[in-house]
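Task 17 of the worksheet. Students: predict the tertiary structure of the chain below and write it out as structure tokens. Keep your answer in the requested format; marks are given for formatting as well as content.
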Amino acid sequence: MITLLCAMSASHARATRLSSSHVAVSVLLAGTALVSVFVSAAGTAVTLLGSLWAAVYAIGSASWTEHEFRRAALLQETFDVRLFGLPWNEVVAGRMPTAQEISRMARRYRGSEGTLRDYYEIRDFPVPVDVLACQLQNLGWGARIRRRYGLTVLTGLALWCLAGLLLGVLGELTISEVLLRWFVPSLGFLLLGLDTYRSQQDIITKREQALALLTDRLRDFVRRGSPAVGQPGLLVLSRQVQDVLLQTRMRYARVPNWFFRRFHSTDRADFSAAMDELEHLLATAPDPVP
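Model answer:
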């Protein structure tokens, strides 16, 4: 399982680096807009470069990283289904990664194994509450961090657009000059930002919908005394929730690691409190119904 976590983390890191390379190029070209505002001779070259990168991003950027997103998602899916004891959904996921693929990718991991332990905030819950509790963390934590990241990206885009308008006013530029010298060179950056924001919102919507359903079903199950007759239905729901997680992971990379680590301790404390609440609910529930 640690080997799987190493492989998963290494693959996610590769996907994030590919995604970050698009960000770096877009930001670099957007930065040249500052040059074109004050150096009119550079305006044509900067505009052409910005237009070219916007076209390249719009046409082929997604396909460059799609393979890496999918591989990282399948490795994480392999870890989850083995840990949760869920069946592999070949219709959605295709074939499971082989032992050789897992081993090869795990060797690329350069971090400490200690940081991979305690991947989930797991308590001594009965089956299937333990599985559902982990999925609640995946759904809730993912939605929270992606909402935060999406708002950060949207704020950055808004500030960049305001900066362009302000420089245009201060430099007494016409509307066409502002568009050509500021917004066209920044077009790749703006497209990337809007695409990032929309993708985060899409993931949030899907995960929160699954989270609300799973939370209601789990609480109802516990309050009824966790009857054995209800366990198969919850395990079916668990597999469906896992499909939602897998499909969103295959389409989009994780948020940058630095952003995730920035809020990791406070987010983990909040989800630990949620597990405390679930533990209390189990402790005060009626005796299990056979």
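Marker's comment: The two ends are 33 Å apart (CA to CA). The mean pLDDT is 82.
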